Structure formats: structure tokens, C-alpha cells
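Q: What would this complex look like in 3D?
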Amino acid sequence: MPTQSVQIPLDVSELPDRWYNILPDLPEPLPPPTDPETGPSRVAQLPNLLIRTCLEQEFSDQRWIAIPEAVRQLYLRAGRPRPLFRALALEQALNTPARLYYKAEFYSPTGSHKVNTALPQAWYARELGFERLTTETGAGQWGTALAYAAALTGLKCTVYWVRAAYRWKAARLGFMQMLGAEVHASPSDRTECGRRLHALDPEHPGSLGIAISEGLEDAQHDPKADYTLGSVLNHVLMHQTIIGLETQLQFAKVDDYPDVIISCLGGGSNFGGFALPFMGERLTKGRTIRFIAAQSQAAPNLQGEYRYDHADHAEITPLLKMYTLGHRAHLAPIKGDGLRYHGCSPILSLLRHKGLIDTVAYPADERHVFERTQTFLRTEGFLPAPESAYSVCCAMDEAERCRETGEAKVIAFNISGHGFMDMDGYKEVLGFGAAEHHHEKAANVLGI
Ligand SMILES: Cc1ncc(COP(=O)(O)O)c(C=O)c1O
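A: Here is my prediction, written as C-alpha cells for the whole assembly.
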């Protein structure tokens, strides 16, 4: 019988000291990055694009990679280890026989899991003598995490922020600026790629693919700057495995084990970080676990084609073998804009191709997802980020299915971030606030 405990903490001394690299355990070798038939070699450019240590990790065949002590210290400063919660109140509200557990990545100084890779990337860049980091951001969570990591390691930081989200997240913009970052709405007029699109439409909503091109182009022109990517690549997912490794220790403490692992998926970093250590146990120890990636119909990249494609709009990156909707596909903005990316990480794409990851894509109006999240907020008391809301929704849907079938499944989901700076998005979709606003207006008219 599992121990019934609402919060399953880990002691500071239990913080893992190594990341898990799934590459040697994959069912077949990961297809390597390649070049398009025309133009200069992008693969040959990789050492100039990525931090050297990260590039080594990208192709490492070592199953375990030591976390440098300085990075472990940074993890401790960022509040790791993070608790795992048993969602007893939610289980009761759903009247489900399932046992629900969620990992609290929202307990992060910047609001999400993104610090888990921002900190090592910034630290490695600093060790190699770089002075500035450039990057893209969608939801703004990755940009904030990198701004934070840059501040803590003494680096400058330039962020290209997808305009659709930049427009409505004033608090997050202020947060990044307060941390010392220079932030530009993307497409911007600071890069060739940005200028081309900006000239066509100054109000262009942008995309992660465009913002990645801008971050890369900026760094290419400054030898003191290095580009850092917040998702998709192998080393990013590996840094994020700290989430799943902690979760495994926590499940052992309560003598339980997940039947289903769920998380939201944009480029794949939080899903990979949470799921890959468990996937490793499925692949090497024969554990039966089902994996579900929660996505939006606005960008259901796992339902795209499995083929080679660029990771960015301007085709600066090599071709990666991945599920993709096409690197220049127009994808309409949503409030969970961090999920709006055309491609899925090559590792997760291969696993999906092998039938090891299922996916669900929720309607782009986000109503069902946000209503579910409101129930979560009112029972468990935490406000997830709009992206993480997809995790919550998928776990709740799965728990309801268990009610119908009577199965007492163990469902584990990751809440990748908090939504304290995303209230305008929730308000717009759920429509609350408007009534009070009208009420206030009416009261003003009546002179009350
Ligand atoms: C809170 C949060 N969760 C999830 C994501 C999706 O990205 P990834 O698939 O890399 O985890 C984002 C992206 O911005 C995010 O901000």
C-alpha cells in the first residue's frame, strides 16, 4: 500500500548530482542533424552557434553526466529540490479512483522549469569567457529564466520575445528588464531576418522559429555573445531530467509508481525532463508506463510529419529529424503561446515514432483547458501557467476516464510553471472580471 501523504518533499542532501542522458538507451540511434542540399553547411557551424560544453553533451553516449558542483549550488538557490504533491482534494472533487500526483516546477524564482537549463547554460558560457547571452522566448518564461541565470552568473542577456505574447505580458517584460535583460519584440528591426518580416508587417505576431533566428543572428555578429536555446535540443532535455530524477526518488518514498506520465509539450523540454527518466525505466527495465503529451490544436506538432526540418524560420540551424508542421507554417497565437512551436524535440519525436508517446491536442480556444485549470486552482490552490494548464487538463481528463472504468491508475503530471503573470490571458478566455468591470462601470454611472 502506498503511503498517503499530501506533500512528498526531498531533502537538500537528496538533490541528484547527475543528469540522465537517454541517448544510449533509445530503441535505435537518434538520426543526426544534417544539412540541406543547398547553401553553406549548418552542421559545420554548430560549434560557433552553441556553447561548447552543451554541444559535447548534445552527442554524448554517457548515460549519466555529472552536474558541476557550482550548478548544483545554483539549483539549491533556485529552490530545488521541488516537492511532489498528491492531489487528494482534486481526486475527491473528481470522485476518481485514480491517484493523482503533480510535480511543482512552479516553485521557481522565475516561475517555471526553464531555470533548470538556463543555470547550467549560463554557467558554462561564463566559464568559457562569454559576456552576453542571446535567446528567443515564447511565453516569456524562458527569457525570464535566462535573464535570471545571466544575472546570477554576471552575464548580459538579450531576449527576442514573440510579439503575440510580448504585447499582453507587461509584468513579465518588467521582470526580465528588472533582472537586467534587454528585451525586443520579435520580429524586431535589429536583425536581417526580423527586419524582413517587420517591413512586411510591423504588427507581425511572430513565432518561436522567427525569434530563434533573431537570437542566433545576433550572436553570430558578436564574438563575445553566445546563443542559448530553451528547448528542443538533447542537452536541454538532459538538464531538465533533474525534474524526473527527483520525482522518481519521491515516488520511492511513498512506495508508489506512475502508470501514466503526462505533461504539456511545446518544443519538449519540460515533458522530456519529467518523462525521460521514467522512459529509461520503461526501455531498460520493462516498466509499463503510458506517456501522454498535452498540446494545442494551434500547434499539434506531434501530429505533423516525421521528417528533417529546420528548427528556425531563417534556416540558420541544421535540419533536425523531428515531427514538424513546417518551419514556416503560420500558427495562430494562443494564450499558452509557449506551446506554439512547429517542431518537437528529436528525442521525443523518435520515441513518438516508435509508438512510445501518445498525444492529445486541445481546441485552440483554450476554454476546456482553462476551465479544468480553474477547478484545479479551486481544489489544490495553485495557479498553473497557461502552458502547464494543458498538463492539468489532460491529467483530469485521464482521471475522469478512470472514474468511468473504475481503474485505480497512478497518474503523474508536471506543472511546469505558475500563471501569476498570465491573468489577462485567463481572463480573456474565461471571461471573468468582465462582469465586475461592468458592475464597477454601472456603479460609477450611478455615483455609488
Ligand atoms: C511554463 C511553460 N511550460 C511549458 C512550456 C513549453 O515548452 P517546453 O515544451 O520546452 O517545455 C513553456 C514554454 O514557454 C512554458 O513557459
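A: To summarize the key features: The longest helix spans residues 234-253. The chain has a mean pLDDT of 95.
Q: Very helpful, thank you.
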